[in-house]
Structure formats: structure tokens, C-alpha cells
């Protein structure tokens, strides 16, 4: 039977090799991950007043933005990635050894990249007929953003409405195109669905911004959605 010194040495070596019990060294949760651990993160963020979205276990762009705000408030590296220290400060628990859960599909990853690009133009002014960062109209904005990721779309909202697969509003997922009937019959306004009932678009009054589908103006004029990814 091994002596006490051998057992102590073995335990010490195990700790050095594997790190603290309950989590794996280098484990982290980031945008694109899904599962119960993401739900814990979202619950902690909502309790702390940083997350206004739905607790759905999907580490979306909204979740990442909330994590960054939380990290900044606590003096942590504000990169939107939840590693052990951020998780412990947020939840009071150790990060599980395999926290990532279900990874996003290729389409979901493309959607996340497209939304990152779309949000990077937030605040760019509206310009009728515009399709560059010097000024966008709604369909020019959508076309430009998707084109940057190798997805070619028609120039106008009515033609974009004919592309891809028709999606019910209850089945929307990030990256889908949402259409509205505004100043003329048919699809005359378009945006990119972000998740949690929000979409990114070039508004004639506010430029590139984020709005909610439930806002009275858009809810009344909602026409449909298309999936092009």
C-alpha cells in the first residue's frame, strides 16, 4: 500500500496538471456557445442589471455586450469572453470543466459574423440610395453587409424579399432578413434580425440603429422574413 508521502505527491501532481477541481484550465464560454452554463451567465447578468434579453441559453451578441459591460464594471478584461474569474464573480461558482455545450452551426457562425459587421456601422447616417459606409439606405445597408461576407443580395428591398426561404416570425433566428411595408405596397424596408425580438437596420430618421419588432410602428408594418444563410 502506498505511503502518505507518495499519496501527497500524487495529489499535488494532479492539482498541478489539472487545475482546481470543478473546472478545466483554459475553459471559457463565448459568443456561439449554447447550453445550461450560458443560461447561468444570462441569469447572473440579468440579476446584476446588465442583460435585458430572454434567458435562452444562447450566447448571442446581446449576451456578449452585456458580459463586456459587466466585465468593465468589475475591472476585468472586457473582451466578452466568460473565463473562470468572470464566471466566479458573476455567479459565485466555479466554471464547469466542459462549459461550452452545443456549438453554433456554420450558418449560425456566419450570422454572428454578419451581425458583428452590421453593428459596427451603428450610427452611420441614412442616405437614400446609399450603399456605402458614407451613408446607407435600408436595402443598401443589408446588401453591403452581406456582400462583405460573400453573400450576394439584390439591391432593393422588394427583390431581397424574393430571395431565400420564407420564415415565420416565430421561427426567426439571427441573420434572417425582416421586411416591412412602409412607404409603398410590398417590401419597402428591410433589416437584419439580431435575436430577442430586435433587428439592425438603416432607419431614415436615425441611421443605422437597432429597433424592436414589437415597436408599434414596425409591428403594424411587418410583412415577413427570409432566410438567406
List the SSEs and their pairings:
Blueprint: H1 4-18, E1 28-29, E2 33-34, H2 36-47, H3 61-73, E3 82-83, H4 84-91, E4 102-103, H5 106-120, E5 131-132, E6 135-136, H6 138-147, H7 157-160, E7 165-167, E8 177-180, E9 189-195, E10 198-203, E11 207-212, H8 216-221, E12 222-227
Antiparallel strand pairs: 1-3, 2-4, 5-6, 7-12, 8-9, 8-12, 9-10, 10-11
What labels would you give this structure?
alpha+beta, Muramoyl-pentapeptide Carboxypeptidase, domain 1, endopeptidase fold (from Nostoc punctiforme), two-stranded antiparallel sheet, 19% strand
Question: SS-based structural class?
Answer: alpha+beta
Q: Which percent range describes the beta-strand content?
A: 15-25%
Characterize the overall form.
elongated
Give the uncertain stretches in residue-range form. Answer: 1-25
Q: What is the second-level CATH architecture of the largest domain? A: Alpha-Beta Complex
Count of individual helical segments: 8
Q: What would CATH call the class of the largest domain?
A: Alpha Beta
pLDDT average, as an integer? 85
Helix content: 25-40%
- Count of DSSP strands: 12
Radius of gyration: 22 Å
Largest sheet: 6 strands, antiparallel
Question: How many separate domains?
Answer: 2
Q: In sequence order, what are the helices and strands, one letter per element?
A: HEEHHEHEHEEHHEEEEEHE
Write down the CATH topology of the largest domain.
endopeptidase fold (from Nostoc punctiforme)
Strand order of the largest sheet: 7-12-8-9-10-11
Distance between the termini: 62 Å
Can you say what the CATH homologous superfamily of the largest domain is? endopeptidase domain like (from Nostoc punctiforme)
